[in-house]
Amino acid sequence: MFDPSAARRQPFVEIIARFAREDGDHATSVPGLTVHRRSEQAVPSCAAYRPSFALIAQGVKKVTLGHETYIYGGSDYLLTSFDLPVTSQIVQASPESPYLGMVFEIDVAKISPLLALLDRPAATAQVREPAGASSEPPEQRGMSVAALTPELEDAALRLLRLLDRPGDIPALLPLIEQELIFRLLTGPHAARLRQMTMVESQSHQIGRACAWLKEHYALPLRIEDLARRVSMSVSSLHHHFKAITAMSPMQYQKQLRLQEARRLMVEDMLDAGSAGHQVGYESPSQFSREYARQFGAPPLRDAGRTRRSLLGRLAGEPEMLSEG
């Protein structure tokens, strides 16, 4: 039976497959755009997602934020509006039909000028946002999955096609980027992007808290100090932080610490004690317990398994870890 959505995705498949010929995450000549390929289902892996728009041309992916899971495929897009530590997993892929996806980072500074245009009376008379979009409560998750509209799909495809015309990038990328943000701002989850730009909003303050934690994850965390730093009460910080990130500030910091410790052991070959100390753990036993709870095995065993998986991927073996 003819599948019109699959037919619409075929140009995405062809372009991504050409620029991601091997499994992995591939930077492109378009600033902010990466393309991704996986030929096998992957074990869960940790990743740090930045504000971005992600689209899958082929395959299915699962992303876990806190205790919540988002599953999306070719008819959806994933919108991330904050820096978030997540666990991701490719759940549908094969050598014959590999997972193929694209991610475009959102420059938050470019949202406000478009909002100013959208909020003009003449513009709002022509472009209708979903009812209540600008007044939705700020306590929304910093990640969401929504149905891909034809307009958003068209803009994303034109973004990908710039890869075949690198000379057009300086002139056309700003226009396509503006349209992508415009489509997101007039979509069902526009409030997430709006809140990021409102200096006095709780979402903006939580964004500042996330940025501080990301930069200073190895330091001891005192919630009172963090609340003071972002001009919130302790109770308000806890409430809005968990509403947006699905984690408490302490849990968010722990995710950052454990992800970095794993990277240090796998890539820099640090031992467990040194890695735990470098990311802020004073107790080796606490580090080992929390690491095993997060990754399903003690630090050294997990690091060795992860390293072997990465080496296997380089050698062309099927088992692999995914962050794309």
Automatic annotation (TrEMBL):
Pfam families: AraC_N, HTH_18. InterPro entries: Homeodomain-like_sf (IPR009057), HTH_AraC (IPR018060), Tscrpt_reg_HTH_AraC_N (IPR009594). Residues 207-305 form the HTH araC/xylS-type domain. The keyword Manganese does not apply. GO terms for molecular function: DNA-binding transcription factor activity; sequence-specific DNA binding. It comes from the Bacteria. SUPFAM superfamilies: Homeodomain-like. Coiled coil: none annotated. Keywords: Transcription, Transcription regulation. This is AraC family transcriptional regulator. It comes from Ferranicluibacter rubi. The lineage of its organism: Bacteria, Pseudomonadati, Pseudomonadota, Alphaproteobacteria, Hyphomicrobiales.
